[in-house]
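Lab notebook, page 48
Experiment: co-folding of the full assembly
Goal: obtain a model of how the components sit together before planning crosslinking
Operator: M.T.
Materials (sequences as entered):
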Amino acid sequence: MCRGNGLVGEISVGGGMTKGLLEKLQRLFGRENVYYEQEDMLVYGYDSTPGIQGYPEVVVFPTRHELVQQAVMIAAEEQMPVIPRGSGTGLSGGCVAVNGGMVLGLSRLNAIREIDEENLTVTCDAGVVTLDLYNAVAARGLFYPPDPGSQKISTIGGNIAENAGGLRGLKYGVTRDYVMGLQGVLSDGQNFATGGKAVKDVAGYSLRDLLVGSEGTLGIITSATLQLIPPPQDKRTMLAYFRDVGSAAEAVSEIIAAKVIPATLEIMDNTTINCVEDFSAIGLPRDMAALLLIEVDGHPAVVEEEAEAVMAILRKLRASETHQAKDVVQAEQLTAARRTALSALARVSPTTVLEDATVPRSRLANTFAEIERLKQQYSLAVGTFGHAGDGNLHPTCLADEGDCEQMSRVHAFFDDLYNMVLDIGGTVSGEHGIGLAKQDYLRRQIGDGGIKVMRQIKDSFDPVGRLNPGKIFVE
Amino acid sequence: MDIEQSKQPAPPGNFVTADAPGYDSLLQCMRCGFCLPSCPTFQLTGRERSSPRGRVAMARAIAEKKLDLTAAMKEEAFFCLDCRACTSACPSGVQAGSIMEHCRSQVARQDGVSLSPARQLRAFVLEKMLPSPGLMKNSLVVARLYQRLGLQWLVRRTGVLSLGPQWLGKAEQMLPWLEKPLSDGLAELTPARGEKRGRVGFFLGCVMNLMFAEVSSQTVRVLAHQGFDVVTPGKQKCCGAPHLSEGDPITARKLAVANIELFMAQDVDYIITDCAGCGAALKDYKKMLEGYYDEATLHAFSAKIRDVSEFLAEQGLRSADLIPQPVSVTYHDPCHLAHAQQITAAPRILIKAIPGVELREMNESDWCCGSAATFGLKYVDASHKILKRKLANIAATNADLLITANPGCQLQLAWGLKKADMQQQLLHIMQLLGQATPV
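Observation: model returned without errors.
Model output:
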């Protein structure tokens, strides 16, 4: 295996676990909420990041807030690292135990506590599944917009810790934009609560905003108060196919320049189109260079107007075909197909190395051109898809981790690409986080000064490095 | 190639014997977790190793020599329902169910023959009884005697069985009143009625034949009424699905060859089954026998297989003379139809084509009912919890009838409806169509 940070180690069964500690945990949490067998250590040692595998020593599932506190205190006594975990669908290795320790599974802490229609908020536990939350508030006529690719199983806690994005980012923003308050436990077992239902809050530093996207390194989030909005009354889903990627990228910029902000503006290249079509068979054209999936939503009159404006731009840029979804079912099919892009690409090769480059929207065409150039230079198979409207691309190398020579080309490809992305003012991670996968790139982006400040923040929250050690910073 | 041998050169890693999961099939999983919400056992336990992603990760660790074929892996291989819901949900094309079947065969071979009576009975059923229709029929003589003598009534009343292992009690309750096996009374040829549209072979599954003879006799009647000559060869054998699912691929391959040879000798356009489990297995023969049998014949055989709903929807149902059925129905998708064969539209098309029938969709119609071959008898508690979820969804529709298309589901659901004191009548889709078909 050739991935540098693959952490492919041995399963150490209950390395630091004594019989006494195990019994104590079982007594407190219940036997059914404590796992320590080697098979469990294996399967709680990964997330969706390719090629990364760690092994915790024990996994506990608190079922109440107080038990999270107890778990953290026990870990402190035992000097064990604590690694919070939702459903394990992250894409940067955020919940992978690097060096043993206790995985703190939050998926059984999963009550939706309150939907407050006067304040337009929902308060829920960290382990609530994103789509379940979406459905619960939708049943009350409300809307929670963030919809990361894995929303069917990802948890709100995980979404907040990684500041997850999704398909609606362009118009509605990302998870951070909906977090109003957070409750949880600090590294020494002390409770914290920050923010709340007040729309405005400038009392001191915004700890809430530090915790969003902190990847489990600053505190354990146990529950959150999230902002809701009224759902759009109408929407229109459109598809456009292009014979060259450049025109598709240009269309993205033109749509925004025309002052239309679609809820969704997604792109797929030819490789991705073919893989998605293999899985979903919804009739995508296999010979097209790129596809744009565009959704405008809002008041019916505005939707009508914006859809027309979008169609006009598509025609102007000679999209070779444009379609409007004829009904909700078809629109759903199209977005569902887009959600499967990554996994569909994964069918093709044993290893998929996915990245999360994000650039200013106006530079999308250049970025695509650079991807194309580097793909040729390193002779790699690369499928690219992403949130074009956010300038957020997921170039995905279809590789084989057994082939070391090829893997070194993959790394060289991303090295070069990220240099370019940083040169034009982009970021090395739009929505997946740094975790284990992108530590080298982080320093390149924020420099030594940036790392120093981030480290100081980490130290002030967690002076002994109890929480999720080994993440974000190169140790 | 010899059927007793595996086509694999060597089992990967710590897999011990032939018929291990292929390493490539394990690498296919990229751990996106899309399978997690679709997996009934993961939803039950919330434990990653009881999920498709976890099970495949364990199998991969075995293949990579990081894990032995441990007790936990064996347990998970059998705890998997093999419902294939994860296969429908997986964008990467991972066949977790089939991988678990391979793992089961590892367990069966590694553990060898054990002398426990339960294992002996299992071996007898799998290796002797199911492959031999004659023996299977005779064994039912005992069961019928037992019914006649009223033992069934006595056992139920005294609760003797509930003192024994839990599963025995449930099996006893699930067993329907056994009629004469259909194959005893069914002519080899049932001629088409009205304008003839073709000639089909009928694959009569073991459970259908023995426990649901009434259903399959309706299937034959419906097919004939729809204009098809129905040929039912008397010498057909078990499809082999129970053997695969219990980790015995060798017997499964032998049965497959016998069935292929029998049916390819008939002059039929299609081979029809009304058992979703059999249909899935028959369609899979080409994979099961890849490298063992002539490829062209395998393809020709597979191309002829149709589930009866799939077939009738494809051919177009002649509904002009159907008798109106003023009922509301809800439909449960059998896993082996919806997930293993991706057939969900056809049964609904047929139901809606019957005049007077109102279809009320239930929530999670393609969620497993918990029967899953012998799962319902091995993991009685887990199976019961999965069943309860299904029953709640059925009850919410308030439909008069519950319709399904697979004998395993039918046994489990009938038992569940009775236990829960629910009023719905349970019918195979061919029984519903049979009711609407004039004499």
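Interpretation: Residues 124 and 164 of chain A are 17 Å apart (CA to CA).
Next step: discuss with group before ordering constructs.
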